[in-house]
Amino acid sequence: MVDPDGRAVPGAISPSQDLFVNSWDVYRKMVDNDYLSHRGAYAALRSVLLERGSPFSFIDVACGDAGMSVQALAGTPVREYVGIDISQDAISRARAALPALGCTHRFCLGDFRELLSGWSSDADVVWIGLSLHHLALEEKGKVMSAVRRILQPAGHFLVYDESCLENETRSDWLARWDAQESSWSAYTPEEWRYVCSHVHGSDFPESEPTWRKLGKDSGFSRFSKLYESSSNLFSLYCFQP
Ligand SMILES: C[S@@+](CC[C@H](N)C(=O)[O-])C[C@H]1O[C@@H](n2cnc3c(N)ncnc32)[C@H](O)[C@@H]1O
Fold first, then answer.
1. Among positive and negative, which fits the CA dihedral 96, 98, 99, 100?
2. Nearest alpha carbon to residue 90 among 73, 112, 72
């Protein structure tokens, strides 16, 4: 989103603006080439799930095609999977992937901000992968408070998202993002420009102290960082009641 002067401002992006919806193949290429360090993040998620031991319910917020989530959940005692996404196409793909897990599963089509604020059942684990960064700080806090409200006392809320260094500005973070160009060798120059224009227009990373404060202000008592991408652009945070 941009303001009248053409500056990027945070806010929900419409499905038609979303990179994932707009160009599935471009997004898949990022995942398959591990450009966003999905493998490390989802391996860390899997470790948490295996350590929990007992059967748990799992909400996959902004699930996309759920491909990485299914890999992380395979062989864990997941009892119920719920996927939320605003894109029907993403949900259709996720729906095709879920039977492999052999657990109860369902999907909710819609905006996670509205769906979570009206959510009526409890959850053991809530996961949101690479999808809070489009929101302004206050909106991120509202989503986190909604998750805190539904999370069981022994629950885990895990957020894998863009993380800037302490005192780093958004434009400094974007400069580090842009510096990846030579390593994204699977991308054509057009695809790289397309991704960059999406990131420059819609992404709003937060620093670790800000993520920590968001957690505290949303009512979480415990905060930890479980993983950091080798690029230092993304981190996985765990919030617990
Ligand atoms: C970058 S993909 C992330 C997919 C997956 N979680 C991952 O880790 O790769 C973003 C996903 O969030 C969905 N999305 C974006 N904004 C949303 C919103 N406000 N409510 C629900 N889904 C949303 C998009 O449709 C897309 O599937």
1. positive
2. 112
The predicted-structure confidence for 139-182, as pLDDT tens digits, reads as follows: 999 999 999 999 999 999 999 999 999 999 999 999 999 999 99
Name the CATH superfamily for 37-166+206-240.
Answer: Vaccinia Virus protein VP39 (3.40.50.150)
What are the structural domain ranges in the chain? 37-166+206-240
pLDDT at 16 over 80: no
Q: Is 131 in the pocket of ligand 1 (CB under 6 A)?
A: yes
Q: How close is the Cα of 122 to the center of ligand 1, in Å?
A: 22
8 A C-beta contact, residue 104 and residue 121: no
Q: Are 204 and 178 in contact (CB under 8 A)?
A: no
Q: What is the CA radius of gyration of the chain?
A: 17
pTM, 2 dp: 0.93
Sequence-distant (≥ 6) Cβ neighbours of residue 17 within 8 angstroms: 198, 202
Is 20 touching ligand 1 by the criterion CB < 6 Å? Answer: yes
List for the chain the helix, strand, coil content (%; round to 5): 45, 25, 30
Higher pLDDT, residue 3 or 228: 228
Nearest atom in ligand 1 to 128's CA: 6
Whole-angstrom Cα distance, residue 110 to residue 81?
16
What is the residue type of 83?
G
How many other CB atoms are there within 10 angstroms of residue 199's CB atom?
Answer: 19
Ligand 1, atom nearest to 21 Cα: 25
Contact 171, 199 (CB under 8 A): no
